[in-house]
Amino acid sequence: MVGVTGEGRRTVVGVTSGEGWVTMVGVTSGEGWVTMVGGNSKGCKMVVGSTSGEGWVTMVGLTSGEGCKMVVGSTSGEGLDNPNLSNIFLYVLPPNMADLYITRNPKVHCLVTNLPSDSGFQLFWIKEKPGLLNPDFLDLQEQFNGTYTATSSLTISTQDWEAGERFTCMVKHEDLLVPLNKSISRRSGKVSPPHVFVLSPNPDEMTQTKVTLTCLVYGFQPENVEVQWLKNQENVPKENYVTTPPLKDGPKESTFFVYSKMVVSKSSWLSGDTYTCMVVHEGLPMRFTQRQAQKVPALDLAAGFCSEDVSSSKELDGLWATVSVFVVLFLLSVCYSATVTLFKVKWLFSTVLHLKQVPGSAHRHALKEPV
């Protein structure tokens, strides 16, 4: 049934046999939605009102039968693009960088939260190019507050992601008037590779039983980056280190930085175990780079002096013997030189005194005589 009034309002009403309201819409010319009334097969009725140009202002769900739920909320600034009456949230997450470029088994992830029930819930994956999709099994779990959370992952190819393929997650639920959907693809724009530095433990930490290794990654864009630690070229579990989320290098900078910190035992560090920071980013020539933590030379020297190795002890004894002989010979040389110099000075001094005591020609004669 369609009717039009003199003011330009149009009304559309649809009714099923005894099942309640299906759709009722009122529209004015250029002023947006005025009223919207509808219901589902359980006889539930919903009323929506809005003002012109401000989007949905009030959303109220009215119960009129068993199984109907009250939904109250409001939004602003979204216009008529989001007529849903629920607070269901949908997120799509990009693939992990290590999965994308190291194992080459990347996945995009869809997360749905705040589902009021699991009844009538459906999740679909869509991509632009034709081809088969292979999503993982849907994981639907009830939370402590009575709502449900759904997660789904879709395996993709590295080639599709780098080519800019768009992947869309679409959700249907009995509390949604229209399906929710959100898409994700590789961001276009400038790409800058990261600079990577690994900082060894501070010398002050060497008095403790544990020491800290730090990996600084900065100057990269886009912000998607993966940092992993290796011990003796084996992956360290993620729960053993902490990495900050990407942060801007500065208020006016377009690049990002992250810190990653790992605490290890001092005995492991001094025993020769190697620790490496691996960074994965699309701006790197090989898509990843590694930096190994270097021991401070002073620490190695101290460790060497503390060693109980017998051969090292013998070498030190031989070194001290050589040094002792050198010192003794040096002192003897100094004493000998001082003695010779003393005798020469004494002889010269006595000669001068003797010459002063000889008068006239004898004096001249004495000077002509050879010494």
Automatic annotation (TrEMBL):
<protein>
    <submittedName>
        <fullName>Tyrosine-protein phosphatase non-receptor type substrate 1-like</fullName>
    </submittedName>
</protein>
<dbReference type="InterPro" id="IPR013783">
    <property type="entry name" value="Ig-like_fold"/>
</dbReference>
<feature type="transmembrane region" description="Helical">
    <location>
        <begin position="319"/>
        <end position="343"/>
    </location>
</feature>
<keyword id="KW-0393">Immunoglobulin domain</keyword>
<feature type="domain" description="Ig-like">
    <location>
        <begin position="83"/>
        <end position="185"/>
    </location>
</feature>
<dbReference type="Pfam" id="PF07654">
    <property type="entry name" value="C1-set"/>
</dbReference>
<keyword id="KW-0812">Transmembrane</keyword>
<dbReference type="InterPro" id="IPR003006">
    <property type="entry name" value="Ig/MHC_CS"/>
</dbReference>
<keyword id="KW-1133">Transmembrane helix</keyword>
<dbReference type="InterPro" id="IPR036179">
    <property type="entry name" value="Ig-like_dom_sf"/>
</dbReference>
<feature type="domain" description="Ig-like">
    <location>
        <begin position="194"/>
        <end position="294"/>
    </location>
</feature>
<dbReference type="InterPro" id="IPR003597">
    <property type="entry name" value="Ig_C1-set"/>
</dbReference>
<dbReference type="InterPro" id="IPR007110">
    <property type="entry name" value="Ig-like_dom"/>
</dbReference>
<keyword id="KW-0472">Membrane</keyword>
<dbReference type="InterPro" id="IPR050380">
    <property type="entry name" value="Immune_Resp_Modulators"/>
</dbReference>
